[in-house]
Design brief:
2 domains; four-stranded mixed β-sheet; alpha/beta; Aminopeptidase; about 35% helix; six-stranded mixed β-sheet; Alpha-Beta Plaits
C-alpha cells in the first residue's frame, strides 16, 4: 500500500484504534508512527555526526506534545551523543518496580554513494521500507515512542511505571548504555528490561512463520592481542627463532583447540524447541544435546554449523594480524588479534588462562584491548513469557516462543550486568534473506513495520495492564 503523511491534530492522530496493516489506508496512529520513523531515519545518527542529541530532542518534543510531564523527560548529553529517559507513570497497583524499555538511537554509518537509494530518506518500494536504521534500530525507537503516545491518548494507566531508556552509542562504545544501567539508576531502576533491539520472529523463505525468538542472554565479547617480540636483524641472516613463525605456531594451536562444552537451561531449551524446525542430523543433534549436552556425536554435529557452534560453548578465533617493519628485515614484533565470545559464567580471566595454556609459550605477551562486560543469563520468567506469548499469538497463533543466547552484543548486556533481567522481544518478523542490518540497502518489510507496532501495544498493555 502507498502511504502518505497528513497533518492532523495529535489527539485525533492517537485516539483512533489500531488497525491491521492489511487495510488499504493506515490508521491515524500508524500515520503518526510512520512520521516518527521517517524523521528518525532522516537523521544521520552515526558516530562522528553529532545528530543523536537532535533525535533525542525531537522525540522529547513529541512526548511533551502528547502530555508527558516535562519532569519525566530527561535528555542526558554525553559528548557528541546522548541518552533519553521517559517515564510513563502508573498507578502502582501492582506493587512492583518499573519495567524498562530499551532501544538505541544511533546507527552504523552508511555512505550514500554506495547505496542504490539515499540511506537517510525513508523510501517505500516493492513492499519494503529502505533506509539506514529501518531495522536496526529506528524501528525499535519508533515502536516504543509511538506506543507511548498512543497509550497516553487512550488514557491507559499502567499498573506500574514504564520507563523508556534510549541509548545513543550502542553501535560503538556503549557509554550511554553503561550510564543508563548504572549512573542514572535513580531514573532507570527496574525489575526487568524489555529490549527492542533483539529477539523477533523468524520467517521461512515462503513467508511462513517458523518461530519467535526471545533473547535472554549474551556471550561476553572480548578481544585479546597476543604479541611475540624478537631482536630481529637482517633478512639475509635468518635466525632459528622468528617472531612471525612463533606467532604462527601459537595460532595453529588455538585453531586446533575446542573449548569445553557449556550449556544452560536457556541453551538446552533453545535446542529442544528448535529441533522440530531442523531437518535430518541437525534436528537429531539438537534434540540429543537438549537431553545430554555431553553427547559427543551431538556436539560434533552442532559444532559443524557456524550458526550453532557458539551456542555450545566459548569460541575464540584469530581475526587480525600485524607483523614486521620492512621486507628485508627479520620481524621484531608479530601481533595477532583473537576475538572471543565467552559463554555466560565461563569468565574472561579463565578464558585467557586457557588460551595461555593451549599456546604454551610464556614469552608471548597478552593484552585485553578494552574492558569487557560480563553478564549472567536472565531467568525464563513467566511474567515476561506469558504476556509476550499473548502478543505473539495475537498475530501469529500457536507460534513457539524460543529463548536464545546472543553471540553478538546489545544494550542488554549492561542491564544484566547491573542486576536487571533483560529480554530481547522485538516485534519484527523477517526472512533471513531480508536481513541487511549494518549493510548496504538495509530494509524492513512494510508489513513487519505495522505488525511490530501492534506487537508492542499488546505486549505493553498485557504486561502492565
Amino acid at each position: 500500500m502507498k502511504l502518505t503523511l497528513t497533518a492532523v491534530a495529535l489527539a485525533a492522530t492517537l485516539l483512533a484504534p489500531l488497525a491491521h496493516a492489511s487495510q488499504d489506508a493506515p490508521t491515524a496512529h500508524e500515520q503518526k508512527a510512520l512520521e516518527i520513523y521517517r524523521t528518525a531515519i532522516s537523521m544521520r545518527t552515526a558516530e562522528g555526526f553529532g545528530n543523536v542529541p537532535k533525535l533525542a530532542n525531537y522525540l522529547a518534543a513529541e512526548f511533551k506534545a502528547a502530555g508527558f510531564d516535562e519532569a519525566d523527560i530527561h535528555i542526558k548529553d554525553m559528548g557528541e551523543t546522548a541518552a533519553l529517559i521517559v517515564r510513563y507513570r502508573g498507578d502502582g497497583s501492582s506493587g512492583k518496580k518499573p519495567i524498562l524499555l530499551s532501544a538505541h538511537m544511533d546507527v552504523v554509518d552508511a555512505h550514500p554513494e554506495d547505496w542504490e537509494r539515499d540511506p537517510f530518506t525513508l523510501i517505500e518500494e516493492d513492499g519494503y521500507f529502505f533506509g539506514r536504521g529501518t531495522a536496526d534500530n529506528k524501528m525499535g525507537i519508533t515502536s516504543l515512542t509511538s506506543n507511548f503516545l498512543r497509550l497516553k491518548a487512550e488514557e491507559f494507566v499502567p499498573n506500574r511505571d514504564l520507563i523508556i531508556a534510549f541509548s545513543g552509542d550502542e553501535e560503538t562504545g556503549m557509554v550511554t548504555t553503561k550510564a543508563l544501567a548504572n549512573d542514572f539508576r535513580d531514573l532507570t531502576g527496574a525489575e526487568f528490561v524489555l529490549i527492542a533491539d533483539a529477539g523477533g520472529g523468524a520467517l521461512a523463505e515462503d513467508g511462513s512463520v517458523l518461530s519467535y525468538n526471545m533473547q535472554a542472554a549474551e556471550k561476553t565479547y572480548v578481544t585479546f592481542e597476543m604479541t611475540v617480540t624478537n631482536p630481529g636483524g637482517h633478512s639475509s641472516r635468518p635466525r632459528s627463532d622468528n617472531a612471525i613463525y612463533d606467532l604462527a605456531d601459537a595460532l595453529k594451536k588455538i585453531q586446533a583447540y575446542q573449548f569445553p562444552v557449556s550449556s544452560s537451561e536457556l541453551t538446552r531449551t533453545f535446542f529442544r524447541k528448535s529441533a522440530d524446525q531442523a531437518e535430518g542430523d541437525l534436528g537429531k543433534a539438537m534434540a540429543t544435546f537438549a537431553k545430554n549436552p555431553n553427547d559427543a556425536w551431538a556436539v560434533k554435529t552442532l559444532r559443524s554449523y557456524p550458526e550453532y557452534v557458539g551456542t555450545t560453548g566459548t569460541t575464540c578465533v584469530a581475526t587480525m594480524l600485524k607483523a614486521g617493519h620492512a621486507e628485508n628485515a627479520l620481524p621484531q614484533t608479530a601481533t595477532a588479534t583473537v576475538n572471543c565470545r565467552i559463554f555466560p559464567g565461563a569468565g574472561v580471566e579463565n578464558t585467557l588462562n586457557t588460551l595461555k595454556e593451549v599456546v604454551g609459550n610464556p614469552a608471548i605477551n597478552w593484552t585485553v584491548t578494552y574492558e569487557p562486560t560480563e553478564s549472567p543469563a536472565s531467568p525464563l520468567r513467566d511474567d515476561v513469557i506469558g504476556p509476550l506469548t499473548k502478543a505473539v499469538h495475537a498475530l501469529h497463533p500457536g507460534v513457539e516462543i524460543v529463548p536464545y543466547m546472543e553471540s553478538g552484543g546489545t544494550d542488554g548486556m549492561h542491564f544484566r550486568a547491573a542486576g536487571m533481567d533483560s529480554y530481547g522481544v522485538s516485534g519484527i518478523f523477517m526472512k533471513g534473506s531480508d536481513v541487511y542490518a549494518h549493510g548496504l540497502n538495509e530494509r524492513l518489510p512494510v508489513k513487519a513495520f505495522y505488525d511490530a507496532l501492534e506487537h508492542w501495544h499488546i505486549l505493553l498493555t498485557e504486561i502492565a495492564g
